[in-house]
Amino acid sequence: MKKLFSVLGASYAALCCMMVFGVTANAYIDPSVMTYVIQAVAGIVIAIGAAVGIYWRRAKKKLSSKLGIDENRNKEVESDDIMAASTTGDADKK
């Protein structure tokens, strides 16, 4: 344990020295590179969100089936009947 603290302390000291005595770089980042970076980050976020959504839905479905919870229990279901308009000329009686 003592060795771990000494390694972490040395790493922390090295990191602090790098931050304090760092050399600045005059570099140019092309705007097209930034659009690629933004697209890559957005793609990663969307992919992670989709994966989490899929696994969340699966876990919820398994948990609901194990606990015997029916999520459609209190929902009202409407019929798919289509009422045709009468052809007796009701619209012409105005």
Brief overview, please?
By secondary structure, the chain is mainly alpha-helical.
Descriptive tags:
single chain; 94 residues; mainly alpha; 2 helices; 0% strand
What is the overall shape? Answer: elongated
What string, H for helix and E for strand, traces the elements in order? HH
Computed CA radius of gyration, to the nearest angstrom:
32 Å
Count of helical stretches: 2
- Total number of beta strands: 0
Q: What structural category arises from helix and sheet content?
A: mainly alpha
Rounded mean pLDDT score: 83
The stretches of 5 or more residues where confidence is low (pLDDT under 50) are: none
Level of helix content?
Answer: 55-70%
Strand content: under 5%
Major sheet details: none
Termini Cα gap: 93 Å
